[in-house]
Amino acid sequence: MKTKNYIYTPTNILDLAPQILKEKKFKIILEVTDFLIYKYIVRNIHFLKYYERIDTMKHDELDLFAEELDVDFYKYDLELEEKRKLCRTAFAIQMIKGTPEAIKRILNVFYKNTKILEFPEFNGEYGAFKIEIKGNSEIEKLKEIETKVNLVKKHSQHFTGITFKNSSNLNLNSFTSQRQGVKEQIHEAKTYIFLNNLEINVLSGRYTFVK
Q1: Integer CA distances (angstroms), 177 to 39, 185, 190, 203, in order
Q2: Which pLDDT score, from 0 to 100, does residue 111 have?
Q3: What residues make up the domain containing 136?
Q4: Predicted structure pTM score
């Protein structure tokens, strides 16, 4: 049950405003201001006490907490520590959204030692960047990675590739093709995966696997 707020009500600003500001032409401004303050600040104050308990919360509590906060990328089948880390990270991500650090933090929930490569590091176009992931990688997560990155990056940034550096044995096939001028395609041996209608087998050269 949510704790009732007695300090601020949804009409505080309107109630305290001078009479001249309560005229019709100003009233809508006060009402909108009241609504925004109440929705984005007052209603979330009580979550602070839950934030301090994230490290001791179990699955059910974390699921409810994430739903209330509308935590990005949250899934009910994640491991317990992944859920805790994602909930903790959600607060920080909102403050730095649109920066390389935001991308790195959200990727680090699922992958360790991620690195953001800016365009000068690979002779890319201005505003372009790539992601380098070290350690074991799963091809099935590529679609999830692209979704995460596109949600937290700036609109002016151009996500152009992912590089995996790992020591695992990925079950890949490589073959040549002349379609759209692509010379080499890489895909998982059993299945095809599509990323926004782009096949994982490097039709656009976006995905590079480095051993």
Answers
A1: 54, 7, 19, 10
A2: 75
A3: 98-211
A4: 0.45
